Amino acid sequence: MAGLLNIKGERKDIIGRDFLAGIVVSSLLFLLAAAFPFSGSFLFFLAPLPIIFYYSKLGRLLGLLMVVGTLSGVVAALKAMGSGEYAPLFGLLGFLGVAIAEVLRRKFSIEQAILASLAAMSIPVLSLIAYSIFRTGEAPWWIAEPYLVQTILENAKLYGEMGVPAEQISLIRDNAPKIARLFINILPALSLISVALCIWLNMLATRAIFYRQSLYFPDFGDLARWKAPEKLVWIVIGSGGTLLIPNDTAFYVGLNVLLICLFVYLLQGLAIVSYFFRTRNIPILLRSIFYALLIFQQALVLLVIALGLFDLWFDFRKFNKTMNGSTA
């Protein structure tokens, strides 16, 4: 009897430590992202990760209490720091962490898991948009247009200090309103891509952590062999064709669809790159350098997208030996 009580006491201590650790780690990651929004922008994408982990370890009830405690403390700290504008974003990221944790309890494929997480995330996002429109009578993205123009002008000034030619700086300044409107018109695609990328990164990181901690994680199979549906290429062709229509609505609808399709092919291209890294036993350091370059070199991103797109015809992975285990 005493031994049973000791076991229960030890389990309560472990749960208590996990609960406090979840609040501390999640809060610290949120606050670091808010304190260093530019240098620490990658932290925003991984902010849901500790919530996914501790929510899964603690269970639904304690996990939700941990998330509420985290967000309450973070919001209070943000107000004290004068960064209260980040509160809605961190609220959404906290919700996304819970959504991903719930999705990972199911036996979904990687596509189903990402789509289910996106569907769950659409609920608070659309609710916030509806509330903003009801309160102000105007869509939030058009309210933000003047601030976006100002940001573009400030970036142009920064580029000038970095030695960018004066002609390019003048071109950016003269077209700042047009650039801002372009960003606003492709905001649906950019938002969807950003959330999907956040979900994808967190699922990959969660898989590695869960395997080490012996926690359940759905079998997504060999992700290095993942391919987009072949019929997707017809959507690419169709959306590309709409760009030739002399109508702004058709143009921007087509551009949004095209950007989303290219993001899917980017993921396929990354799967191909990962496949070759594994089969050629490329050192971890060189792999890390390549993935870091993707963040700063847009030309390399386009190359990876092309790799994913042309894989439909060339099937770059068919000549290589079969890989063991699940990879990413």
UniProtKB/TrEMBL annotation:
A Pfam cross-reference name: DUF2232
Keyword annotations: Membrane, Transmembrane, Transmembrane helix
Transmembrane annotation, as ranges: 20-49, 61-80, 86-104, 113-134, 182-205, 257-277, 289-314
Family annotation (PANTHER family): DUF2232 DOMAIN-CONTAINING PROTEIN (PTHR41324:SF1), MEMBRANE PROTEIN-RELATED (PTHR41324)
Protein name: Uncharacterized conserved protein YybS, DUF2232 family
